[in-house]
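Would you mind writing out the residues of a protein together with its fold in C-alpha cell form for me to study?
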Amino acid sequence: MNTESIPLEQCEADRQPTPLLVKLKDKILTKTMTPGSYYGEPGQGDSRLIAIVTTLCCILLWMAATELGWIKPLFLPSPLDVAARMRELVTDGFAGASLAEHMQASLGRVFGAFILAAVTAIPVGILIGCNVWFRGIFDPIIEFYRPLPPLAYLPLIIIWLGIDEASKVTLIYLAMFAPIALSARAGVNAAKSEQIQAAYSMGASKLQVLYHVIIKSALPEILTGLRIGIGFGWTTLVASEMVAAEAGIGFMVLNAAEFMVTDVVIAGIIIIGLIAYSFDMLMRHLEKKLVPWKGY
C-alpha cells in the first residue's frame, strides 16, 4: 500500500458530506427545484383554521405564563382576570363612564375622521396622480408632514383648535389623510396608457376616461389605503385622547395605566384590536365585492 496516498484518501473522506446532510440537501432541492403541480396565485388558500389555532396557542401561552408564575400579575394579568374585568367594565364602567360610553366616544372620533379623510384624501390623491399642478401643490405638503409622528404636531393643533373634540378629530384625520391620498395616487399609476388611449380612440371624454379607466384601475389601491388609514387612526386615538378627554377607550387605557390597573389596560387594548380587526374584515369583504378583478 502506498503510505503517501493514505492522508489524501482521508482528506477526501473528510470532505465527503455525511448521509444526513446529503438527505437534507436532496430534500431542499426537491422542494425548491421541482415544478409545482398547481400554478395559482401565491399564498392562495384558506388560512382561517391556522389563524384560530395560532390565537388559541397564544392564549394558552399567556395563561401558562401567568398561572405558573413566570410573570407577576401586576405586569401581565391572566386571561381569566382580564375577562372578569371586561364583565365589570360592561356593568360598572370605568373612570366615570360606562364601557358603551367609552366605545361611543372613540368610535365617533375615529370614524368621523375616517369619513372626512376618505372624502377629501381620495380626490386629492387622484388629482395628484392625474394633474401636474395638483402634484406640485399637494405632494410637497403631504410628503413633508407624512413622516412626522402625530405627537409632534399635537401641541400646535391644541394651540390652534383648543382642547375640545375638534382637535382630537383633526389629529386623527391628519394621521389618516396621507396614507389614503398616497394610495389613491399610486392607484392612478395602475391605469395603463394602452387602456387610456383605447378609451380615447373609441370616443370617450376625459370624465369618462377618469371614471371608467383611471378610478376603476385605482380602486384596489384606494381600498388598501383605506385599510391602512383606519389603522393609523386607531394608533393615533390614544394620543388624541391624552388631552382633556372625559371618555374613550384610549382615555380609559391611559387612566388605568396611571394607577397601574393592568387588567383594564389589556382589556382596552383587546377592545381596540377587535374593533380594528372587525373593520379590516369588512374592508376585505368589500374589496372582494367591489374589485373582483384585483390581481389580474
